[in-house]
Amino acid sequence: MEAGIVGLPNVGKSTLFNALTKAGALAANYPFATIEPNVGVVPIPDARLEVIRKHIESQKIIPASLRLVDIAGLVRGASQGEGKGNAFLSHIREVDAIVQVVRCFESAPGGEEITHVEGSVDPARDIDTINMELILADLQTVESALSKAERAAKSGDREAVARFEVLKKIRPILDAGKPAITLKIDDPEQKKTLKGLSLITAKKVLYVANVNDDDPNGRGPLAMKCREHVKKLGGDPEQDVVPVCARIESELAELDDASKLEMLQGLGMKEPALNALARAAYHLLGVQSYYTAGPKEIRAWTVPQGATAPQAAGVIHTDFERGFIRAEIYSVADLEQFGSEKAIKDAGRMRVEGKGYIMQDADVCHFLFNV
């Protein structure tokens, strides 16, 4: 699964990306510092992996991960090609979800002035600027596809008809300045068609309030304005907005565990904000983790919420799904309670599940298959 980091220039996107991926030096402070997108793989912090290792001896732990794409700063007019806009927008179409970084600080620590492309700091305006550029880009896509879709629909082909109907429904929504994600569709064929259009505004959005180091929990006026605006747009200000001080996180990323803990305690933080961000992005994508555990490795695997046991097995290897027989499953909570797989079996808590089983978050699995 992949998320794209977007925002105006000089809001801290690349600083955030570098901290998340421990990619090194901060980006230069000028617009369009990033031309081609950088891609990094971010591990998802998961305390349950250590719980499993406490009871099952293993050589290593492999957490679930999220691919992040650092997409160059968008500006007003990007949908018309301003600031390399068209190239940048094409990168956004390819990701599964969007992480929008919003500047919620006036100046950097130490009083360093960082130029804002609009000349002033206003989270609500910046969110609207980015969202409108994405809506306008989608509107161009829809308008250019409509006439061709109408001609194709006359053939009576089911997919062609569904495509034309979806495009007709989306156009007035985008024309009204609303994102495609607000379109409600019940017809399965049309849902599939909508997904195939790869519209940017049909993707879920997580907002990152990039705050100053004196407001790490994001309760200052700018961060609160960001939350209020997200609420006005129909989002949940506590779940859909994650406050992060990118500068603090970039420093934490360079420290060993002991120094990191000392710095966090000094700042009054329980954990790096990036942990909360990674988990929020993971859940934004509608995915969850299940685990396999053995002497070689304990590993978290990513599956969509609602995935069946065979589909989950297929994430490990396609042969596992093709030849699926059954799965032996217990929960991390069972392991913590009983202390070992043998004790779980003896207590009758080891479940045998078939092809119709819907995977639950924190399942620990042994798959039986035959190819």
Can you describe this structure?
Helices cover 41% and strands 20% of the residues. The protein is flat, with a radius of gyration of 23 Å. The protein is an alpha/beta fold. It is built from 14 helices and 12 strands. The strands form 3 sheets. A 6-stranded mixed β-sheet has the order 2-4-1-5-6-7, with helices on both faces.
What structural category arises from helix and sheet content?
alpha/beta
Residue runs with pLDDT of under 50 for 5 or more positions = 23-35
Strands of the widest sheet, in order across it, are 2-4-1-5-6-7
Outline, from the CA principal axes? flat
Largest sheet: 6 strands, mixed
Summed over residues and divided by their number, the pLDDT gives a mean of 87
In N-to-C order, the SSE pattern is: EHEHEEHEHHHEHEHHHEEHHEHHEE
Beta content comes to: 15-25%
Helix content: 40-55%
Write a concise synopsis of the structure shown.
The chain is of the alpha/beta class.
Keywords, separated by commas or semicolons:
371 residues; alpha/beta; six-stranded mixed β-sheet; three-stranded mixed β-sheet; flat
Task: Give me the secondary-structure topology.
Elements: E1 2-6, H1 13-21, E2 38-43, H2 47-55, E3 60-62, E4 65-70, H3 85-93, E5 97-104, H4 123-153, H5 158-175, H6 188-196, E6 204-211, H7 221-232, E7 241-244, H8 246-252, H9 257-267, H10 273-284, E8 287-293, E9 297-304, H11 309-316, H12 318-322, E10 324-331, H13 332-338, H14 341-346, E11 351-353, E12 363-369
Parallel strand pairs: 1-4, 1-5, 3-9, 5-6, 6-7
Antiparallel strand pairs: 2-4, 8-9, 10-11, 10-12
